[in-house]
Amino acid sequence: MIEVERIRKAAVRAREHVLRTPLVPVEGALLKLECLQPTGSFKVRGFFAAALQLPPEELRRGLITVSAGNAAQACAYAARTLGVSCRVVMYDTAPATKIEGVKRWGATPILMPRDAMLEWLATGGWKSEPESFIHPFASPEVMAGHGGLGLEGVRQDIEVIGVQSDGYALWTRSLEAGGPVSIKPETIADGTTAPFDPGMFELLKECVDRWLTVPEPRLRSAIPELAAAAKVVAEGAGALAYAALEQLEPGPPTVAVVSGGNIDPKLLAQLLG
What we know:
Helix content is 41%, strand content 15%. By secondary structure, the chain is of the alpha/beta class. It has 2 domains: 4-41 and 148-272, Rossmann fold (3-Layer(aba) Sandwich); 44-140, Rossmann fold (3-Layer(aba) Sandwich).
């Protein structure tokens, strides 16, 4: 588990470069709008925390990461802000919105088929690259930086509920099986389609109190609901927590994190139509 003091230090490092996002009320919950961060997702918190922890000589080499899209944009934005180069390895099926976002922040996307990208990640492909690698989800400093959002008006004695789509219920199925399972992503929540990671598996067993699985049709309907009810544009992964609210019994206040808003405009138009 990441210690609270480590999270506080990471939040202090990143503070100058990220927003303290609002808590917006909707029926039955509060929405934590991380979709309002500079790159449209919470990922900037972790990447600034990790990049600013690097020794100066490692930071000067530039940054490289691997991502379905939001971590890629966060890495690119952090690199541009800190004045260093950046390349990101991405799925060749990543939404055009996310690829263009990477380019907009001055980084170079390296597109690979999903299997090739996962192989690059699993075999440490970054070790032969000149830049400093920041792991998009398993780096302790990235995780600590992301944890900064929990320090913003959210109580520490809480129940943590994980949410996944049934179109890629990797963690719920892996936890049931006691280890990795093979699943093909069939979800609009592309930001949740990272591969199984043994270290993350152990952390999730320790830190997540329970899990909810959202049917993919419900996730698709949640995006226009969010737009109408809260005037919030969320991508698939960003809408998951909101989509799961209907599964909760009435009880203590619930905060649903809207983790990202980088939805493909064509998909958004289809869902709104």
